[in-house]
Amino acid sequence: YALTPGNPKWKRNNLTYRILNYTPEMRRADVDEAIQKALRVWSNVTPLTFQKVEDGEADIMMSFVYGDHRDYSPFDGPGGMLAHAFQPGEGIGGDVHFDEDETWTKDGTGTNLFIVAAHELGHSLGLSHSNDPGALMYPTYSYTDPKEFLLPQDDIDGIQAIYGQSDAAVQPTGPVTPQPCDPSLTFDAITTLRGETIFFKGRYMLRKHPSRAETELNFISLFWPKLPSGIQAAYENVERDEVLFFKEDKYWVLRGYDIAPGYPKPIYRLGFPKTVKRVNAAYSDETTGKTYFFTADRYWRYDENKRSMDHGYPKKIVSHFGKIGRVDAAFQKDGYVYFFHGTTQFQFDPRAKRIVGQMKSISWFNC
Amino acid sequence: FPVAPEAEDERKTPKLVESYLQNFYDLQIDHQPRLRSTGENHLSAKLKEMQEFFGLQVNGKPDLDTLEMMQKPRCGVPDIGQ
Q1: Do the Cβ atoms of A137 and A12 come closer than 8 Å?
Q2: Which residues contact A180 (CB under 8 A, 6 or more apart)?
């Protein structure tokens, strides 16, 4: 995180805000809700409180304005600059301006007002831009479903460096942006995708292309806005050029690079009994057309040709996969299956039916 | 979705680069003619500053990754203190 040069801050913890005008693209109640939620992002982790006022001068004045709005920082029409805010201080200090040329929405169909407001309020409170790509205070816009939003730890550290911790007995913590070479990094799910390998972690995906040395870090929502964060399992069906993503009792199908219409669907359509609430990991053996699903300490086998679960399952993972007891993530590549549990990775040879290697989970990132 | 090629883009996009660096990296454009260059090109230095901030390859050139970053919607507050 970075503080605004000169470390400006509000001298009081009880601040006022006023919404001077409303964008016509959203219902007033939705604007109010987005702004209140954005303020709660910061008040939840600090001693700050925010009170709405309807008249007069508030500490933080918010408005929707077009182009040149007489603060020497004109907006630029649709796209580009979305909004800006002023550091803590008298007069224009703390104020937030939203570019009315944007299409403001309460969801992800346009520019999400909550996400942008939460970012701008960080400036109003004394934060500058962070170079952590997962931070709320990162300068570029990326959509996160407001229902899933958690203030990243980088932003919590930044705002608490200015105002201190909240008065709550239990201090909230936030997600940390995954670093490919962090030896403590674990994964939620992994899949191949047309020759690339995609590692899922929280709301991020780490993308490893075989011909590129570096690993690309992206939000899942950047490529697939319909997918939730926290994907729990994924596998590629090379034959059908599909990838299936799993979270809780739902799954989505990616055809080519696009999520197929009609998803998510319940995992029970694949033949799981209702007792199965989620899938921890999956991989598909392209030579046999069999897909293996891992749930807790058991696995299921699915026949991609018959499109049904094979009989006689589930079985204990240890009964077939050696000392591997539980699996966080798995994928098949070049004839081997790679199983991930915590920071450990097992290389399994399905022909010999034994583990032939054990590595750190981050071994794919050229660290 | 396909990854961008790693080769640098030689397309001329001076307007985008200049306006981005003016807005967010305090680039001062000096249109006065000069007899000789004095040290490193100011625009290149600002590009490096921007590339370093965003974790891009720091080469002082408007390559594809840099241009892509410049075209993303963003907050209007500069990335460096003014």
Answers
A1: no
A2: A206, A215, A217, A362, A365, A367
Distances (CA, A) of A75 to A98, A108, A361: 9, 22, 46
pLDDT digits (tens, 9 = 90+) for A254-305: 998 899 999 999 999 999 999 999 999 999 998 999 999 999 999 999 999 9
Q: Does B5 touch chain A (CB under 8 A)?
A: no
DSSP symbol at B4: P
Contact assessment for residue A283 and residue A331, using Cβ atoms and an 8 Å cutoff? yes
Distance CA A330, CA A235 (A): 8
Q: How far is CA B13 from CA A76, B63, B68, B79, in A?
A: 18, 10, 12, 21
Residue contact B77–A257, C-beta within 8 A: no
| Nearest residue to A204 via CA among A181, A188, A183 | A188
Could you tell me how many CB contacts below 8 A there are between chain A and chain B? Answer: 64
Answer whether B75 sits within 8 Å of A4, measured CB to CB: no
DSSP assignment letter at A256: T
What interface predicted TM-score (ipTM) does this complex get? 0.82
**CA A247/CA A243 separation, integer angstroms:** 13
Q: Which residues contact A127 (CB under 8 A, 6 or more apart)?
A: A1, A2, A3, A4, A137, A155, A158, A159, A162
**Strand, coil or helix: what is A358?**
strand
CA-based nearest residue to A293, from A260, A334, A256, A246: A246
